[in-house]
Amino acid sequence: MADALLQVRDVHLALPAADGPRPVLAGVDLAVPRGSFTCVVGPSGCGKSTLLGVVAGLRRPDRGQVLLDGCDVTGVPGRAAWMAQDDLLLEWRTVLDNVALGLEVQGVRRRDARERVRDLLVEFGLADHADARPSELSGGLRQRAALARTVAQGRDLLLLDEPFGALDALTRLHLQRWLAATWAQHRWTVVMVTHDVREAVALADQVVRLSGQPARVAARHPVDDPRPRHPTRPGAGARAVEHSVLTGLGALGVADAEPDRARHDP
Ligand SMILES: Nc1ncnc2c1ncn2[C@@H]1O[C@H](COP(=O)(O)OP(=O)(O)OP(=O)(O)O)[C@@H](O)[C@H]1O
Q1: Are 217 and 28 in contact (CB under 8 A)?
Q2: Residue 57 gets which letter from DSSP?
Q3: Tens of pLDDT along 114-165?
Q4: Cβ of 209 below 6 Å from ligand 1
Q5: What is the Å distance from ligand 1's center to 47 Cα?
Q6: Which residues lie within the region annotated Disordered (predicted)?
Q7: Which of the four, 40, 53, 159, 222, has the lowest number of CB atoms within 10 Å?
Q8: What is the residue extent of each domain of the chain?
Q9: What is each CA distance from 51 to 13, 61, 182, in whole angstroms?
Q10: Which CATH number fits domain 1-80+155-266: 3.30.530.20, 3.30.1490.20, 3.40.50.300, 1.10.10.10?
Q11: In a mutational test of the pocket of ligand 1, which residue from 49, 82, 194 has the highest number of ligand atoms less than 8 Å from its CB?
Q12: Distance separating alpha carbons of residues 89 and 96, to the nearest angstrom
């Protein structure tokens, strides 16, 4: 794919199970253009987080390659910024110091890191909470803080694992709108795992559907609807993609094995 920042090529990985190694990823191919937003969906437990871990360099695949900007970064951590399902905020640090941690882990001194992330706190609506502890924040603000810490690392690629999964529906909707608007300004290259197909079509330029375990890319659905998009009133294109993804997932009563008419671009 032209100007793909991230390329995942034929990635295979087996993980230990009680009865021996179990194949979890079975030839995953993915291309993510620079400045685009990709959402990864798939059946529960199929290997979405595992795939993100491979892209983040936290897991080395048994076979295949991860290329970032054309460089082989297979099994090399620290090249992409990764946000785990759990926000992993440190309770003994203030919000400011949690966000600054994204830079401190790269060797930036705490005082300098604090100065550098102050603008980010303002942009993420966290300025009034800079000195608060994470336990004092609402769920939505915690996720903003975790996202700010991820962005603060200044990496080309952001990997977000179910960032809104633990939030109530209303907060989730607010954060989706906020993320869409913030992303439109920055155009980070994002790969985000989500279980929420509507969220995926509201945010993404492409929705990648994984098969059941062992996972491979079952379909790639481009979402061409203009932005900004309304999160609860998707346009015709987004509705068609949502229907196609849900059908592929078997959520509309059609088996996962059913041929998919979406464009498939492994
Ligand atoms: N450290 C590990 N050791 C062994 N097996 C693992 C490990 N981590 C995950 N698995 C297994 O790998 C498979 C894929 O897990 P993974 O968390 O990647 O799926 P997922 O699609 O992200 O799940 P969910 O939809 O529930 O978030 C599961 O069967 C899981 O039990």
Answers
A1: yes
A2: T
A3: 999 999 999 999 999 999 999 999 988 999 999 999 999 989 899 999 998 8
A4: no
A5: 5
A6: 215-239
A7: 222
A8: 1-80+155-266, 87-154
A9: 9, 9, 25
A10: 3.40.50.300
A11: 49
A12: 11
